[in-house]
Amino acid sequence: MPEAGIASRTPTLTEVADAMGLLERPHGPDGRFITWAFNCGADPAFREVRPCRKIAAEIALSWGHSQETADAAESIVAELMANTMQHVPMAHEIGSVALVEASNGSLVVMVHDRSRARPYRRLDDNAERGRGIELVQSLCRGLGGRLDALRDKDGRGKCLEAWLGPCLPWLQRGSLPRY
């Protein structure tokens, strides 16, 4: 029972994950870059997706982004993590998710894995799967952004950048943190 005058509240999922040391933050003063890792080879229904997408939404809201942007970030993290888990063949591979606030105020969701395969939409309209990338692109476009796939410098992996808001010009984008 809490003491009189002391408010009791349940901590957010982000606060719990942070307290457990699961979230990594930059040493910069603004704290607008945060990243965490996940197991790529897990079953797509693995319980890891739900907390990761919820963390993304909580962070977006705590940084002052709209509910629409937070909802888009939540859906994008879920779709890109599920794709990674489905298509990265090694159970021991680790992927990572990062949220970055670009200098123009856009929220950028970045999902990294060590697979060389680039994402694509399957052309079979009767298929039950294969529309995740199209959904992510649509969410990005709806907020004035876009989805980009960037290869790692060593050629052994890729990072998907989902811009939720206007993209920075290519020259300025080099200043986004890489992990």
List keywords for this structure.
179 residues, 5 helices, 5 strands, five-stranded antiparallel β-sheet, alpha+beta
Specify Rg, calculated over alpha carbons: 17 Å
Outline type? globular
End-to-end CA span? 43 Å
Low-pLDDT stretches are none
- How many extended strands? 5
Main β sheet profile = 5 strands, antiparallel
Please tell me about this protein's structure.
There is one protein chain. This protein has helices spanning 13-19, 49-62, 67-87, 132-142, 170-173; strands at residues 33-39, 94-101, 107-113, 147-151, 158-164. It is α+β, with helices and mostly antiparallel strands. The N and C termini lie far apart (43 Å).
Short description:
With 179 residues, the protein is α+β, with helices and mostly antiparallel strands.
Furnish the topology, listing elements before pairings.
Blueprint: H1 13-19, E1 33-39, H2 49-62, H3 67-87, E2 94-101, E3 107-113, H4 132-142, E4 147-151, E5 158-164, H5 170-173
Antiparallel strand pairs: 1-2, 2-3, 3-5, 4-5
Helix pairs in contact: 2-3, 3-4
